[in-house]
């Protein structure tokens, strides 16, 4: 828990520098797209890790929060023609509200571990079903358009604007994760993850901290959903509320290393470009290959590096800081 | 001596079994109280009730006159009641240092102060050289000391020690006993309730002893009085620990 | 008028329960012995359906008749999966188990996608498409056959568990692995056998479902989730509970689905599921 040296920060700094100038180099559309999607995923995975990695409450239903952010934004903009800000605020507040309700119901009554995981999956499925059945508002299974006037009025290419937005969001969330990890909150979440009873015996209000982690994670994830809606301009339940999305967010975080601030980002920034590139190279007949390889990777990493791939890197790069 | 904890008519049932049956007793300010009894007599249950891990089916727990019966464990810690566990519960994958830090963060205003306090406590309990070791890899004796170190980091007023001596060598037991005694003598802690199986050790250190058997309080008094109590001897008959 | 509809809905629900039952029993058996939820149960069903499909297309064997063959293939597949992937999981932390199962799900789904394309496939079997009319009720034969085969399979499974030595070993390991070990039972072999049986049961599910439903690489997850709800409802590891749970869920889906719509019916089922997790995680009949 003590700071493990500053080398990951250096890497991050270099990565940020490179990332900031990519659009200026006028790359082909799909390169910008892959980096944007990778950053979005890195953002979502880091947000997930606050509750799934730090606090150890594994959620396989985080697409619920992505969906809340995306759909509320879409509905406010498309159906009610109101402001984006309203959509964003409503999305975040709703996500927090639902997280509070589900979180309190579960954590107060001892629903933990796999049972908590099931409840998050059920939550995502409930929202999925609701969206599909309320066709008039949500567009049902076909989805809904997200018209963002503000983006079109900007002097720069909307895709480039989105790129910088997600880059900023990503950096903000990664720095937040780092700050939390090395704070009292971070220590307390780790204690809860390791042994809830012992944590209580150390004066930690386990219920409060679990709720805090879940609500923070859900709010950030919802904001990610808002970005998703704005960036793609069109959302469907299979895109933002699917079990598969939840699985991907959770497993990518865990594969990178959900206990440490740069782990999920590492996972996302390795996995997403890999799958996107293999998908565009192969496509057609070999359409299943990227995710098949991902599946195999998951099984291997779970055995070989249960704390995440960053463990492999940390042996080479990171030094222990002296205590004193 | 004023009393610091009073339990009144505590009953705790599990299914049909009464683990504690109408137990009433006090812990006085400045005393070391020993709690003994055969296996299954309800000693740990009583600790769990006092520290908030169990809610009693009947009865009340008072701390300095205040009714704290229904408070959850973390609130009991806020009041100053800290317990250790019979089977030690360190945060297994964390280092010794981080374990004590988590305790220290309870009272300390910020990370820096918590770090300082942690270093002091590790030094005091002679755990410095284990500082960076992962706690699940520690031998039992060190784990027990870690458990106490973490508890001390929370600046407790009352310490509830659940079998802190189990699994220790005689040398370790003597060290632990003098540590416990010094905690009270130097007023680091107001009072200590020590649950123990190693009767000889408890006799040496306790000012007063209470005896539980099958969930009921069967004897109370000075170590000598309790040792001579025929009911107590009967309950321990055949266990050979009283010799 | 609407009481006829209700009656039809109830019949549909009972028939549906038959299908859910066989999948749930497999999941339940594995959980009972290993305390692990086999998230890839649905994918095993999916593979079973593809095997059944190809047997039909290549050799003309009726899906009902090919059940023993498909069960055999799945039994071996299940045993291998357990030995190399699931058994090592038991010692790993929960997070690793989640990652492994998701990895397994993806691996199975996308292997199927690569091998057999995303196209929906199904099989038309003459008699299964017919229906019986009992006064005001219509009973599709395929569904009736599915439910009957499923109920009888459950019965055989029950007899196997209660009356045979192997069944006894399985029950012992499920109740108390340590005690079973001390009695000389090779619990590792029991676990392999259990996973293999749990997988083989999907062969029965495949045979009865293919005439009724399409198969494509991603149908599995839905059934895994329904099965999960059912076994939680009935009490994790509880055989009878799974049967009762299947009937309840089948009825809920059919009745609510008829009178409101299917999506809301399922949303309600999920809500009840969450409620159950909170209020009585040991289910209706307890663990």
Explain this structure.
The complex is a heterotrimer of chains A (324), B (243) and C (287). With 324 residues, chain A is mostly helical. In chain A, 74% of the residues lie in helices and 1% in strands. In chain A, strands 1-2 form a two-stranded antiparallel ribbon. In chain A, helix 3 (63-78) packs antiparallel against helix 4. The longest helix of chain A is centred in the last third of the chain and has 27 residues, at 206-232. The radius of gyration of chain A is 20 Å and the shape is globular. The model of chain A is unreliable at 318-324 (pLDDT under 50). Chain B has 243 residues and is α/β, with parallel strands linked by helices. Helices cover 36% and strands 26% of the residues of chain B. In chain B, the strands form two sheets. In chain B, strands 6-7-8-3-9-10 form a six-stranded mixed sheet, sandwiched between helices. A four-stranded antiparallel sheet of chain B has the order 2-1-4-5, with helices on one face. The radius of gyration of chain B is 18 Å and the shape is globular. Chain C is an all-alpha fold. Chain C is 75% helix and 3% strand. Chain C has helices at 2-34, 41-59, 67-89, 94-116, 141-163, 165-175, 177-182, 187-209, 220-234, 239-259, 262-279, and strands at 131-134, 137-140. Chain C is globular, with a radius of gyration of 19 Å. Classes of the chains: A mainly alpha (324), B alpha/beta (243), C mainly alpha (287). Chain A binds chain B through residues 1-2, 182-184, 187-188, 190-191, 194-195, 197-206, 320, 323, and chain B through 51-53, 72-74, 77-78, 82-83, 85, 89-95, 97-98, 101-103, 105-106, 110-111, 114, 119, 131-132, 150, 154.
Please describe the biggest sheet of chain B, giving its number of strands, its sense, and whether it closes into a barrel: 6 strands, mixed
Q: What is the CA–CA distance across the termini of chain B?
A: 31 Å
The strands making up the biggest β-sheet of chain B line up spatially as 6-7-8-3-9-10
State the helicity of chain B in percent bands.
Answer: 25-40%
Global structural class of chain B: alpha/beta
Number of E strands of chain C: 2
Task: Using brief descriptors, characterize the structure shown.
heterotrimer, B: 243 residues, alpha/beta, six-stranded mixed β-sheet, four-stranded antiparallel β-sheet, globular, C: 287 residues, mainly alpha, ABC transporter involved in vitamin B12 uptake, BtuC, two-stranded antiparallel sheet, 11 helices, 3% strand
């Amino acid at each position: 828990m003590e700071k493990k040296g500053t080398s990951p920060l250096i890497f991050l700094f270099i990565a940020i520098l490179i990332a900031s100038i990519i659009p200026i180099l006028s790359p082909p559309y799909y390169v910008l797209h892959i980096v944007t999607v990778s950053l979005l995923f890195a953002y979502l995975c880091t947000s997930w890790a606050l509750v799934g990695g730090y606090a150890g409450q594994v959620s396989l239903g985080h697409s619920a929060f992505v969906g809340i952010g995306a759909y509320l934004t879409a509905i406010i903009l498309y159906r009610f023609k109101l402001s984006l800000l309203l959509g964003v605020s409503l999305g975040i507040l709703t996500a927090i509200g639902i997280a509070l309700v589900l979180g309190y119901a579960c954590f107060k009554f001892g629903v933990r571990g796999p049972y908590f995981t099931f409840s998050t999956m059920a939550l995502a499925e409930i929202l999925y079903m609701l969206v599909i059945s309320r066709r008039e508002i949500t567009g049902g299974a076909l989805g809904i358009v997200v018209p963002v006037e503000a983006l079109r009025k900007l002097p720069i290419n909307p895709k480039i604007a989105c790129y910088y937005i997600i880059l900023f969001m990503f950096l903000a969330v990664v720095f937040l994760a780092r700050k939390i990890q090395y704070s009292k909150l971070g220590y307390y979440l780790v204690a809860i993850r390791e042994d809830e009873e012992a944590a209580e015996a150390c004066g930690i209000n386990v219920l409060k901290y679990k709720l805090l982690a879940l609500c923070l994670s859900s709010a950030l994830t919802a904001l990610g959903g808002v970005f998703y809606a704005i960036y793609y301009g069109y959302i469907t339940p299979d895109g933002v509320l699917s079990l598969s999305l939840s699985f991907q967010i959770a497993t990518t975080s865990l594969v990178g290393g959900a206990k440490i601030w740069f782990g999920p980002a590492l996972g996302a920034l390795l996995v997403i470009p890999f799958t996107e590139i293999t998908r565009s190279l192969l496509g057609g007949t070999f359409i299943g290959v990227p995710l098949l390889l991902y599946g195999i990777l998951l099984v291997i990493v779970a055995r070989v590096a249960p704390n995440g791939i960053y463990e492999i890197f940390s042996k080479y790069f990171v030094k222990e800081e002296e205590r004193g | 001596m004023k009393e610091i904890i009073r339990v009144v008519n505590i009953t705790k049932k599990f299914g049909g079994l009464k683990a504690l049956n109408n137990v009433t007793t006090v812990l006085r300010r400045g005393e070391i109280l020993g709690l003994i009894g055969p296996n299954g007599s309800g000693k740990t249950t009583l600790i769990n009730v006092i520290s908030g891990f169990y809610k009693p089916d009947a009865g009340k727990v008072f701390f300095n006159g205040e009714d704290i019966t229904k408070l959850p464990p973390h609130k009991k810690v806020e009041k100053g009641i800290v317990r250790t566990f019979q089977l030690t519960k360190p945060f297994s994958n964390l280092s010794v240092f981080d374990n004590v830090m988590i305790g220290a963060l309870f009272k300390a205003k910020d990370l820096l102060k918590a770090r300082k306090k942690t270093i002091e406590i590790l030094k005091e309990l002679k755990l410095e050289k284990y500082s960076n070791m992962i706690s699940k890899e520690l031998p039992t004796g060190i784990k027990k000391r870690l458990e106490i170190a973490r508890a001390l980091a929370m600046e407790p007023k009352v310490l509830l020690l659940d079998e802190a001596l189990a699994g220790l060598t005689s040398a370790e037991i003597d060290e632990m006993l003098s540590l416990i005694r010094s905690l009270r003598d130097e007023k680091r802690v107001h009072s200590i309730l020590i649950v123990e199986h190693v009767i000889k050790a408890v006799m040496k250190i306790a000012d007063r002893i209470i005896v539980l058997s099958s969930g009921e309080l069967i004897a109370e008094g000075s170590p000598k009085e309790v040792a001579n109590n025929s009911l107590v001897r009967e309950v321990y008959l055949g266990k050979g620990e009283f010799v | 008028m609407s009481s006829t509809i209700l009656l039809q809905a109830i019949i549909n629900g009972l028939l549906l329960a038959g299908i859910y039952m066989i999948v749930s029993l497999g999941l339940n058996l594995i959980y009972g012995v290993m305390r692990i939820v086999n998230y890839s149960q649905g994918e095993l069903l999916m593979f079973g359906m593809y095997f059944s499909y190809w047997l039909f297309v290549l050799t003309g064997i009726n899906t009902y008749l090919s059940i023993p063959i498909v069960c055999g293939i799945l039994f071996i597949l299940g045993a291998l999966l357990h030995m190399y992937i699931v058994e090592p999981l038991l010692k790993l932390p929960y997070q690793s188990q989640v990652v492994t199962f998701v990895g397994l799900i993806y691996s199975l789904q996308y292997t199927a996608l690569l091998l057999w394309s995303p196209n929906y496939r199904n099989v038309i079997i003459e008699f299964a498409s017919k229906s019986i009319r009992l006064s005001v009720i219509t009973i599709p034969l395929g569904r009736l056959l599915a439910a009957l085969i499923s109920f009888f399979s459950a019965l055989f499974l029950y007899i196997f568990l209660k009356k045979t030595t192997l069944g006894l070993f399985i029950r012992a390991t499920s109740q108390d692995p340590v005690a079973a070990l001390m009695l000389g039972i090779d619990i590792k072999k029991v676990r392999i056998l259990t996973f293999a049986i749990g997988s083989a049961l999907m062969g029965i599910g495949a045979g009865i479902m293919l005439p009724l439903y399409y198969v494509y690489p991603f149908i599995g997850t839905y059934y895994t989730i329904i099965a999960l709800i059912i076994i939680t409802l009935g009490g994790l590891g509880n055989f009878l509970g799974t049967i009762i749970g299947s009937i309840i869920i089948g009825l809920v889906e059919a009745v609510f689905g008829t009178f409101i719509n299917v999506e809301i019916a399922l949303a309600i089922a999920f809500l009840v599921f969450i409620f159950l997790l909170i209020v009585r995680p040991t289910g209706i009949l307890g663990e």
